[in-house]
Amino acid sequence: MIDYSFPLYRPPAEADNVVIQATYGCSHNRCSFCSMYKTKKYQMRDIEDIYREIDIFAKHHPDANKVFLGDGDALSLPTNYLMKMLRYLQSSFPKLSRVSVYATAQNFLEKTESELTLLRENGLSLIYFGIETGNDVLLEKINKGVTSKQMIEALCKASNANIKISATVILGLGGEAYSNEHIRDTAVVINATRINYLSTLQLGLEEGVKERFYQYFDEFTMPDDVQILNEQKQLIHLLHPVNKIIFRSNHASNALHLSGTLPKDTARLIEKLETALNIGERAFIPSRFRGF
Q1: Predicted confidence band at 292 (pLDDT cuts at 50, 70, 90)?
Q2: Are strands 259-262 and 245-248 parallel, antiparallel or unpaired?
């Protein structure tokens, strides 16, 4: 039996995969919009406990080929610790093809490219990375802890190590006042990196988070769905990636679900957005069916 420390979070794409908590909580845990790990204190787990859990999973799911390491940013762990875990996973799951983690820019900045390359060679192949915004004013307001320049450096280090990147952007994060800057500077970050997967979601603030989030703004007006979709349209228009990006906006928070490959499908995605905006609310997913 696996004794998870709840709440437990994992990306939607990891729903059917083995999930192992390499850490508890998040090493940063100060982002003003996030409520995910506020009830947990960051903690590195004992490696022997993790080995025991891997043994249990290997016994009951011997054909598992994908593993996600939680909690908030397992890449914060020392490289030697991660190496032991990755090698144990490789020996325990003969069909293992992917190990993924949540990661922050800070995690990458604290590791050398040779360390990251070594982790990749031992199975760490995908990171889930929250860009949120590329605007430095907003990054400070949301307590992200890094600048856009540092974020670009971190993402480039991941790509140089051949680690794939699945990144997220939060539409509406700048409210009405910072909307243009938010989208413009976010596009700059993406265009300067080699992201493989990109998802957008709409800002949602759970109870207990709103007061903390709003205190960093002189005034914050939440954009409506029309404004959000115009941000989406502007972002897609500004993206000129150096590599193929698989794009999705199918998070439960989104007013309109989109999917495609950038830049190949840029024109089609913009056309779909324009059609929905012309139709209005009837084309949007009703708010009662959405969540964050």
Answers
A1: low
A2: antiparallel
Residues 254-277 as b or e (16 or more Cβ within 10 Å = b)? bbbebebebbebbeebbebbeebb
Tens digit of each residue's pLDDT (9 = 90 or more) over 141-151: 999 999 999 99
Q: At what angle do helices 148-160 and 113-121 cross, to 10 degrees?
A: 40
Task: Tell me the residue range of the domain where 79 lies.
Answer: 12-289
Report if residue 2 sits inside a domain. Answer: no
Q: Is the peptide bond before 263 cis (omega within 30 degrees of 0)?
A: yes
Distance of alpha carbon 280 from alpha carbon 174, whole angstroms: 23
- What CATH number is given to the structural domain containing 252? 3.20.20.70
Q: Rounded to the nearest 5°, which phi and psi values hold at 200?
A: -115, 145
> 152: closest CA among 142, 141, 143, 139?
139
CA neighbor of 142 nearest in space, from 199, 182, 103, 180: 182
- On whether residue 6 sits in a domain, the answer given is no
Contact assessment for residue 87 and residue 40, using Cβ atoms and an 8 Å cutoff: no
Residue type, 204: G
Supply the pTM of this predicted model: 0.95
Residue 3 forms part of a structural domain? no
**CA separation for the pair 202, 246 (Å, rounded):** 18
Q: For 101-116, how does the pLDDT look when each residue is reduced to its tens digit (9 = 90+)? A: 999 999 999 999 999 9
Q: Which of 232, 132, 230, 135 is nearest to 182 (CA)?
A: 135
CB distance 198 to 129 below 8 Å:
no
Instruction: Please count the structural domains in the chain.
Output: 1
List the alpha helices (DSSP H) in the chain. 47-60, 79-92, 105-109, 113-121, 136-141, 148-160, 179-191, 210-214, 225-238, 266-279
Cα–Cα distance, 274 to 42 (Å, whole number): 44
